[in-house]
Amino acid sequence: xxxxxxxxxxxxxxxxxxxxxxxxxxxxxxxxxxxxxxxxxxxxxxxxxxxxxxxxxxxxxxxxxxxxxxxxxxxxxxxxxxxxxxxxxxxxxxxxxxxxxxxxxxxxxxxxxxxxxxxxxxxxxxxxxxxxxxxxxxxxxxxxxxxxxxxxxxxxxxxxxxxxxxxxxxxxxxxxxxxxxxxxxxxxxxxxxxxxxxxxxxxxxxxxxxxxxxxxxxxxxxxxxxxxxxxxxxxxxxxxxxxxxxxxxxxxxxxxxxxxxxxxxxxxxxxxxxxxxxxxxxxxxxxxxxxxxxxxxxxxxxxxxxxxxxxx
Amino acid sequence: xxxxxxxxxxxxxxxxxxxxxxxxxxxxxxxxxxxxxxxxxxxxxxxxxxxxxxxxxxxxxxxxxxxxxxxxxxxxxxxxxxxxxxxxxxxxxxxxxxxxxxxxxxxxxxxxxxxxxxxxxxxxxxxxxxxxxxxxxxxxxxxxxxxxxxxxxxxxxxxxxxxxxxxxxxxxxxxxxxxxxxxxxxxxxxxxxxxxxxxxxxxxxxxxxxxxxxxxxxxxxxxxxxxxxxxxxxxxxxxxxxxxxxxxxxxxxxxxxxxxxxxxxxxxxxxxxxxxxxxxxxxxx
Lengths: 312, 285
Known about the structure:
The complex is a heterodimer of chains A (about 300) and B (about 280).
Chain A: H1 2-29, H2 34-39, H3 45-55, H4 61-73, H5 87-122, H6 127-141, H7 144-163, H8 176-205, H9 208-215, H10 220-258, H11 263-272, H12 277-305
Helix pairs in contact in A: 1-12, 5-6, 5-8, 5-10, 5-12, 6-8, 7-8, 7-10, 8-10, 10-11, 10-12, 11-12
Chain B: H1 6-18, H2 21-38, H3 40-43, H4 75-110, H5 112-126, H6 130-141, H7 145-155, H8 157-171, H9 175-182, H10 187-224, H11 235-243, H12 251-278
């Protein structure tokens, strides 16, 4: 087990180094001069030069990269070009809020997805199964930003019109604010989990040890939940880990629809569109590192649950 | 295991596809969108770019079955032209992914020395979740339609590379490859003549599913303001403006979203059906 752990950790290191380098290079490749952004169009050549020197942009590429890495080790992600505030605290705070949304979406996805998948597997080709899988098909195809808008229209605007009370449409503050964005974001993951759970459960339910358990007189409930589900969950776990990435991706869109103050909106609205590269750099770095760590965690968990994997 | 004769494979695959009702539904939906896109200049009732300030935000009517947007433009015509645009984006993005990802995967699978390096590169690209990678690429390339195609295409390279690498690794060990080696066939010829044709099935399935993803990503980027620029009738851009009028004119946001959903549904159903038809052993995954 330890060998597996060490191997996976060692593999993650070059990936993380590569990620930091790629982000650094990508940001430097962006068109536009940050000095011009700070100083404005009317700046003189000397002013631009002095700003570039202050930002360290006059140094060679590799020196800039080393300065960047050294700052990274200290937890310093630079300063915003527009506001001159340190990037790290802002990115971490907004990232925390994205994680809040992502976890809520995962809760929605897991609850609905596993339930639908198990029910479908227990009654394959019945109307429950049909409805479930039909729903899953739509869930996978529906664009999250459109679903968010429609949910907002029905449960925030129309509901308010008809009853005087509606769910909050935008922003963050109470648990109610999480409901619509979490449902929108979690739907496609719920659909994928439902399909995956159904497929693996069906496979597991045909195994010999299940037939033996039934022959021994074990109740159907125990067969499903005690024996089948545990084994079916193994491949579902990998899908779960992959879904974290999809959820982070989808969070950008969901945050924009519901004006949720997360890191996705930060990257687009305060980073890319106004060309504030330290924000883009810091935010994408945090997201990518988190994603690599989660994948690593899922791999390790997978190795723990299924001992066959460790001897890979 | 005998190497399947290409003609034989496609006949039995088509027979299997025909027997799958959901796949046929998918095929029907895809055909509908392709026809709509191709025939757009003839079937669109109005000019998708022409504003009509006397009819802004008008609801569905006989003249405009899907209503009019904030500049009075006919939404049905814009949705039809949007299909054309989305199919272009999907096709070109997938083309880029295949042209760059497949050879990368083939070479990586075939030469173990290169494999280590390529795998690390792919790991790094895959460290950025889906849409975020496309967003990162857009931030370098700048916003706009062509850049969207390139960004989505490049973002799909790791998927193809991994897929083909996996196929190549298993095919490499087969007897007919060893036989080809023994006959003195060069590596490149073996890859193109024997290895890649047997990876064709997963590439076709992945490409169909990837078009669905490309359409979703393009709409997403358009929605965020990072994609096609107005006044282009791109579905995501239409949704983005529709958001501002949700309270007073929900039809502006409803119909482009439905179009995206059905297009994606169609390609997903077709992709699933192709997967079952081309390799029934994969069924249940």
